[in-house]
Amino acid sequence: MTGRIERALVTGASSGIGTAFARQLAQRGVHLVLVARREDRLRALAGALTHSHGVEVEVLGADLADPGDRARVEDRLRSDLQVVDLLVNDAGLGGYGRLDTQDPDLLRRMVEVNVTALLHLTRAALPGMLERQRGGVINVGSTAGERPGPHAAVYGASKAFVNRLTEAVHEEVRGTGVRVLLLAPGFTATEFQAVAGVAADVAPAGLAADPDEVVAAGLQAFAAGRAVCVPRVADRALLHAARALPRVAVRRVSGLIHARGGGR
Ligand SMILES: NC(=O)c1ccc[n+]([C@@H]2O[C@H](COP(=O)([O-])OP(=O)(O)OC[C@H]3O[C@@H](n4cnc5c(N)ncnc54)[C@H](OP(=O)(O)O)[C@@H]3O)[C@@H](O)[C@H]2O)c1
Questions:
Q1: What pLDDT does residue 257 have?
Q2: Which of 51, 211, 226, 251 is deepest in the core (most CB within 10 A)?
Q3: Which of 26-40, 123-137, 160-174, 243-257 shows the lowest mean pLDDT across its residues?
Q4: Residues 6+ apart with CB under 8 A from 233
Q5: Ligand 1 within 6 A of 38 CB?
Q6: Residue 209's closest CA among 235, 240, 228?
Q7: pLDDT at residue 206, rounded to an integer
Q8: What is the pLDDT of residues 213-225, one digit of tens each?
């Protein structure tokens, strides 16, 4: 399923979709480099995956909002020793509220992690992959990047960047042997909503996709060389509907939904 992928670097591996990526890649015998801030979680996951699947797992604790830490992860991606041939840019965070009331430092971190880190890690990984004519990048964007997101304006804009960038780079490297996939999930049951301060009754987990389902769809799409994967039928239908509706209606409905999530 993962072709000739031998070693993957997964950001955001301490939780949610990133942990599911680490598990499913280890099940396929892929060695791992796990990146996030919570090193205790990464070490526990590394121990479990090495024990159950016999894969090598490196732990690389890094705050991707910090340029110095980002540079260490970029160096690891460029290394010729134990070459990384799949980069999964999964780390990300959200935040709800009217722009003028949101914490400026939260907004900065959202842009640094969701946009700047993803861009620079992709830029660091691609040259070696292109030289070897194999490997690839999976960028985790979002269906939220396909519509204006009042009360989650910066998050939506950050994911619009990820979605547009990734599809464009997929096209740039077409035919080189290197694959670039945009994985754009909708609402998924992870720690994301709690981290973003959304109450559980506003975002009921019963409506959410399972992270394992999202990752399985993503790895299948990557293996097939696709450009974009929106894992759930319901989310694909909503995207089609949003394209057909007048933009003003999409803005209003989107704003009402996000305002319930904590937009003041
Ligand atoms: N859940 C959803 O409904 C949903 C929908 C569409 C797209 N997504 C996207 O899916 C991706 C994964 O999110 P998730 O749903 O799995 O949420 P999650 O459970 O909250 O996981 C987020 C991951 O990002 C890492 N992270 C956050 N800030 C970081 C920083 N400064 N430096 C390094 N790592 C950082 C976290 O690790 P540490 O805290 O340990 O650093 C954690 O491993 C995100 O890009 C998100 O935008 C999620």
A1: 83
A2: 211
A3: 243-257
A4: none
A5: yes
A6: 235
A7: 77
A8: 999 999 999 999 9
Which residue's CA is minimally distant from atom 16 of ligand 1? 16
In 3D space, the residue among 168, 138, 142 whose CA is nearest the CA of residue 155 turns out to be 142
C-alpha 68 to ligand 1 mean position (Å): 20
Distance 77 CA to ligand 1 centre (A): 20
Task: Specify the CATH class of 7-260 in words.
Answer: alpha beta
90 lines ligand 1 (CB under 6 A): yes
Q: Are strands 136-140 and 228-229 parallel, antiparallel or unpaired?
A: unpaired
Q: What is the pLDDT of residues 129-156, one digit of tens each?
A: 999 999 999 999 999 999 999 999 999 9
Distance 162 CA to ligand 1 centre (A): 14
In the sheet with 86-89, reading across from the earlier edge strand, the strands are 57-61, 31-36, 7-11, 86-89, 136-140, 179-183, 228-229
Mean pLDDT on 235-254 = 93
**Cβ neighbours of 83 (radius 10 Å):** 15
* Ligand 1 nearest atom to the CA of residue 11, by list position: 34
pLDDT at 245: 94
Question: Could you please report the per-residue DSSP string of 114-136?
Answer: IIIIHHHHHHHHHHHHHHHT--E
From the CB of 36, is ligand 1 less than 6 Å away? yes
